[in-house]
């Protein structure tokens, strides 16, 4: 499979399933067909307060 580019919305939703809805990283990664490493990486980026994310993007 070629490397896929996931949308911001997809990544945020995947992270929210872990952080807001209480699912495990393994469960979400299996259901969505992504690696646990990707989900942990996205969690590091997307589970921060909005002003902090904007500062990093600048």
Model description:
It is a single chain. The model has no long low-confidence stretch (mean pLDDT about 85). The longest helix is centred in the first third of the chain and has 12 residues, at about 10-20. The protein starts with 7 loop residues before the first helix and ends with a helix. Helix 1 (about 10-20) crosses helix 3 (about 35-45) and helix 2 packs across helix 3. Helices cover about 65% and strands about 0% of the residues. The protein has about 60 residues and is an all-alpha fold. The chain contains four helices and no strands.
Give the count of helical stretches: 4
User: Sheet bearing the most strands, described?
Assistant: none
- Integer tally of domains: 1
Structural class by secondary-structure content: mainly alpha
Question: Unreliable runs, pLDDT <50, ≥5 residues?
Answer: none
As a percent range, the share of helical residues equals 55-70%
User: How far is it from the N-terminal to the C-terminal residue, by CA?
Assistant: 32 Å
User: What does the overall shape look like?
Assistant: globular
Q: How much beta, percentage-wise? A: under 5%
User: If you compute it from the alpha carbons, what radius of gyration comes out, rounded to the nearest whole angstrom?
Assistant: 12 Å
Query: How many strands?
Result: 0
Element string (H = helix, E = strand): HHHH
């Amino acid at each position: 499979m070629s490397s896929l580019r996931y949308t911001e919305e997809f990544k945020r939703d995947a992270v929210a399933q872990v952080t807001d809805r209480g699912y495990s990283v393994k469960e979400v990664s299996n259901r969505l067909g992504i690696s646990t490493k990707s989900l942990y990486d996205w969690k590091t980026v997307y589970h921060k307060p909005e002003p902090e994310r904007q500062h990093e993007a600048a």
